[in-house]
Design goal:
Blueprint (H helix, E strand, L loop, with lengths): L1 H27 L5 H27 L9 H29 L4 H8 L2 H8 L9 H18 L8 H23 L5 H24 L3 H6 L1 H25 L2 H9 L1 H13 L5 H17 L7
Helix pairs in contact: 1-4, 1-10, 1-11, 1-12, 2-3, 2-8, 2-10, 3-7, 3-8, 4-12, 5-6, 5-7, 6-13, 8-10
């Protein structure tokens, strides 16, 4: 019970941090490009975690389950590499998507990963329940309603955000694959390092930002780096370790609600009636996907 309460608190805080991060990502894009923002936020995230890793490793001493253990270290690096590749890809698509979408809308489209995860689990030989099929149809309908724009169809930014949701699904499944065999904080740090390296390559080739641009974007980058990356993604890994996938996914999906709230109060962004209806349908689908039937 204590682990469940701890996990619930950790993932609720994660959802709040990630929800507000949509604002930071949107504001930061006014001054720097997607690759630059992504690179620096993950550098900061990795640097933020290194002292904690050093302290925990020192306290653990000769415990075979610590980062010093060869098997654990190997799985931590392997898991961090895979999660990092999915994380940086998802983040970049999210950054490009936010450039042409509101914060609240971006949050709800991103939350579709909660619907996508069960379907990807088919490849892991897991069954899909009737409620999950229904929830997917509801969420897709909501996505269409809030994303369709006049006669021009679904916008490019919405497509980017949908791809982002798919990639975050892969990252979540990757965490589930490695979580019982790794040091959580260390794996989080490795995935940030991988993300930072990929982001740095794109930044140097495509953007090459100036010092003045970085200074103007300093506050949102610091929030995204320390809070969203360093604290948020680490809490995600720790929370997933303390909770079963269903309640964990439900709690993380609340980031969509907090993103809409943050967008309204901080950026004064108001969703249209159509967008609001679409968001409600997406969230209804997300909630329904977490409800297990008796047969399941």
């Amino acid at each position: 019970m204590k682990k469940q309460i701890k996990g619930t608190i950790q993932l609720t805080l994660t959802a709040i941090i990630w929800g507000v991060a949509f604002v930071a990502q949107s504001v930061g894009m006014d001054h720097v490009g997607p690759w630059t923002f992504t690179c620096i936020r993950f550098i900061l995230g990795a640097l933020f975690l290194i002292p904690f890793i050093c302290v925990s490793t020192k306290k653990a001493g000769t415990d075979v389950k610590t980062i010093r253990d060869k098997e654990v270290r190997g799985e931590t690096v392997k898991g961090g590499l895979l999660c990092g590749l999915f994380l940086v890809s998802a983040t970049l698509f999210q950054q490009y998507g936010i450039m042409s979408s509101s914060v609240g809308k971006a949050g709800f489209i991103t939350s579709l990963y909660i619907i996508i995860v069960p379907f990807l689990s088919i490849f892991l030989h897991k069954k899909i329940g009737l409620n999950e099929w229904i929830s997917a149809l509801i969420a897709v309908a909501g996505f269409y309603i809030m994303s369709i724009s006049g006669h021009s169809g679904i916008g490019r930014g919405d497509v980017f955000l949908l791809i982002c949701a798919f990639l975050f699904s892969m990252q979540i499944l990757s965490i589930d694959r490695f979580i019982d065999h790794v040091d959580p904080v260390s794996m989080s740090c490795v995935q940030f390092m991988v993300s930072a390296v990929v982001g740095a390559a794109g930044m140097l080739i495509l953007e090459r930002p100036g010092i003045s641009d970085l200074l103007l974007a300093a506050v949102p980058i610091l929030y995204a780096g320390i809070m969203s990356s360093g604290v948020g993604y680490t809490l995600q890994i720790l929370g997933q370790k303390n909770l079963n996938p269903t309640p964990a996914s439900l709690l993380m999906s609340l980031e969509s609600v907090f993103s809409a709230i943050a967008g309204y109060f901080i950026l004064h962004q108001i969703l249209s009636t159509k967008e609001t209806i679409g968001c409600l349908l997406v969230f209804a689908g997300v909630i329904l996907a977490q409800i297990k039937t008796k047969k399941e």
